[in-house]
Amino acid sequence: MIGAALYSFRRCPYAMRARMALRYSGLAVRIVEVSLKAKPAEMLALSPKGTVPVLCIDGRVIDESLAIMGWALAQNDPDDWLLKDDPVARALMAELIEENDQGFKVHLNRYKYSERYPDQPMEHYRAEGEVFLLKLEALLAGREYLLAGHLSLADVALAPFVRQFAHVDREWFAQAPYPRLQAWLQRFLESPLFIAVMAKPL
Question: Considering the domain boundaries, does residue 200 fall inside one?
């Protein structure tokens, strides 16, 4: 796709999920890896709020990761990530993504950076985040993915954040009572799609 560029930071979970959707959809997008400490002027000119990811397609700017994912899947969704024929699953997908982005992400930030939130110990913030992990563990009963027998938008939208939560204390997560979620996350981390978007540019 001529004229498409994504401003991204590899370790940002929002950027991860946008990049995976773009790659899955087979769209040729130039990836511009940015430093969050020295954001390029051209990115700030496109999106003054200064957060990644930012997608520019022939002058059109999309600067929310979910909107980027939606745009990519509207172009091409060969494996039905959107679960277009299952309205119940689609409704649950929207609920899960909203809970992830509006609630779990808050608990994740406080758990990861607990020294900035001294009102409570780290374990308190972890326990708040575990409420969401328990929900995901239950959804994985009897299948390998959250909402269907295959990868969907929900899996890809949530996995980068669960990965970040797991990596705060890897030893704790490895022994936590979430075997299905642990296996789901490991499949995600070992997937060709994730490995491809996390590869450092040559």
Answer: no
Range of the domain at 103: 87-192
Report residue 1's pLDDT band, with 50, 70 and 90 as the boundaries: very low
Tell me if residue 195 falls in helix, strand or coil.
helix
Residues 122 and 184 in one domain: yes
**Measured CA distances, 194 to 20, 40, 61, 70, 189 (Å):** 7, 25, 24, 18, 6
Give the C-alpha separation, 196 to 66, whole Å. 20
pLDDT digits (tens, 9 = 90+) for 158-181: 999 999 999 999 999 999 999 999
Q: Which CATH number is 67's domain given?
A: 3.40.30.10
| Residue 110 included in any domain | yes
Angle (nearest 5°) at CA 90 between 94 and 103: 20
**Using the 8-state DSSP alphabet, how is residue 33 labeled?**
E
- What DSSP designation does 145 have? S
- Shared domain check, 186 and 104: yes
Whether the Cβ atoms of residue 161 and residue 107 lie closer than 8 Å to each other: no
